[in-house]
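The records we work with from here on pair a chain with its fold. These numbers are not coordinates but entries in a learned vocabulary of local backbone shapes. To see the layout at work, look at the sequence and tokens printed below.
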Amino acid sequence: QSMDSTLHYIHNDSDLSTNSSFSPEEERKSKVQDVVPQDLLDQYLSMTDPSRAQTVDTEIAKHCAYSLPGVALTLGRQNWHCLKDTYETLASDMQWKVRRTLAFSIHELAVILGDQLTAGDLVPVFNGFLKDLDEVRIGVLKHLHDFLKLLHVDKRREYLYQLQEFLVTDNSRNWRFRAELAEQLILLLDLYSARDIYDYLRPIAFSLCADKVSSVRWISYKLVSEMVKKLYMASTPTFVVDLMNELVEKFCRCHKWSGRQTFVFICQVKCLFICI
């Protein structure tokens, strides 16, 4: 029966691709695919039904969200239209655990879907997660570089204005959030120009260097050192000169011993000695 059902849908799918009477909009909304038995897919899609949470499992939506990248990989990007509505439903679920699960895997889904579908369908969801609870935001923050590197350069630059918002958390004692931000900024140095680094990433790095938690500061020292190295290798020397002058003025000549100590710690990195 499963094979007959599958062959039936394969036949219908071929008809859709050859029949010119179907508009692109109708074809997009169709849930027909020829990869797995349609009944199996329908059962998966029904996991977002609120009644299933009451009768089957209260966390069934979370399980659905956890499995979605695997289902998307199995069906392929050509069948994303079968999962799009379900994904959007999960992304707006009232349970933060469901949204958190999607936030941690959105970069994997972006690889599966490609740049066009990512820009059209995933970027709006990604933007929503950026404004969500910290428990959800940490998911996109941990894979910020992995997601942004898949976007077009112009689209990627739009997030430069939002990086500063990661310094603000629901709980100021959540230092691991800021530590993760510093780690991600090190990776993001390869995605942006020298001017973008100086204008947008430099202020964040300096703020993290003065963090109250030592673990955050230590990662930030590495961030600043890598930033100096990146600007030193750029074609325009103005940025690295200005950055070095600011380091000297802000930390080396600081009236507090902790500021001067920060300068020494940053100078422990070999690349900074080369620049000096």
